[in-house]
Design brief:
The protein has helices at 8-26, 31-38, 42-55, 119-136, 174-181, 194-201, 270-273, and strands spanning 29-30, 58-62, 73-77, 83-89, 93-99, 105-112, 144-151, 154-155, 160-164, 169-173, 186-190, 210-215, 219-225, 228-230. The chain is α+β, with helices and mostly antiparallel strands and 274 residues long. The protein has a five-stranded mixed beta sheet. Strands 1-3-2 form a three-stranded antiparallel beta sheet.
Length: 274
């Protein structure tokens, strides 16, 4: 017999996450419908709904019914509960998007980066763009739950950019620098997370094994297998842009030679230079 005690707090958090997922997926629902979809009792649902109400996470409206008696209360997520910021750092431009709690794009801005691609100039430009976007939408730093920054390159889990050939960056603790500038947590990813956005458009994709190719200022690939992104032991898996295309090509941002004729991707090692 298993006498392991039930972690009621953890169970409550899991039920709360499940209710939020149901509301996110189905939109407006009554508490009865939530109980049926989630497979929980009405008392449990009432406790969770009250907790969401205290946090300001949900909106409640009176529904319609042909039956006598009180009308059902319909629940839906509050789109203004919190926001997240998504940033793309590109050699040609910087793009900032603000998304509400329903993952709806509420604001977007984009600027041409120009010749100065230094870390300092990029962070200063992003600081100006993000604060302008927040002011334009009457949002404070406290309403931002998180900010995610993406760029092409070899990036560790702690947000350290070992190398970004398109940006000409190497050995940059980008996450630390961003967290010193902004009052909300920042996370840095490479561009392979673009594949995750595809799952929002077609959730069935997440159940498949996928090879995703990214063709932009550079060339890269992402492998998604068994429900996770494959990054390799060094975090550099998928950097196909550094495969030699033209051994006599110009110099890569990583310092080696062997770009294809358009000067965008590919490199060869020092041994091949000789």
């Amino acid at each position: 017999m298993n006498n392991t005690p039930i972690d009621s707090r953890r169970a409550g958090q899991q039920n709360e996450q499940m209710i939020v997922s149901m509301l996110r997926r189905h939109g407006r629902l009554s508490q009865t419908e939530l109980c049926r979809l989630a497979g929980i009792g009405s008392s449990t649902a009432s406790t969770i709904v009250a907790r969401l109400r205290e946090k300001g996470m949900n909106i409640e409206t009176r529904g319609r019914s042909d039956r006598r008696g009180p009308k059902p209360i319909l629940l839906e997520l509050n789109p203004d509960y919190c926001y997240v910021i998504a940033v793309e750092i590109n050699p040609s431009y910087l793009c900032v998007g603000i998304f509400n709690y329903l993952s709806e794009l509420t604001d977007q801005s984009r600027i041409v980066l120009g010749a100065d691609r230094s870390v300092e100039h990029v962070i200063e430009s992003l600081e100006h763009m993000i604060h302008e976007s927040l002011d334009r939408n009457d949002l404070s730093d406290q309403t931002i739950r998180h900010a995610g920054f993406t760029l092409s390159g070899s990036i560790s889990r702690d947000g350290h950019v070992s190398l970004s050939s398109p940006m000409g960056w190497s050995n940059v603790s980008l996450k630390d620098k961003l967290n010193r500038v902004f009052n909300f947590p920042a996370t840095v990813y490479n561009n392979r997370v673009r594949l995750m956005a595809e799952f929002e458009e077609d959730s069935e994709l997440s159940a498949r094994n996928i090879l995703y190719l990214n063709l932009a200022d550079g060339v890269g690939s992402t492998l998604y297998m068994d429900g996770r992104l494959v990054s390799g032991s060094t975090g550099r898996y998928g950097e196909i842009g550094h495969i030699v295309v033209d051994p006599k090509g110009p110099q890569c941002g990583c310092g080696h030679f062997g770009f294809p004729h358009d000067g965008q991707q590919g490199c060869r090692n020092e041994h091949n230079q000789k």
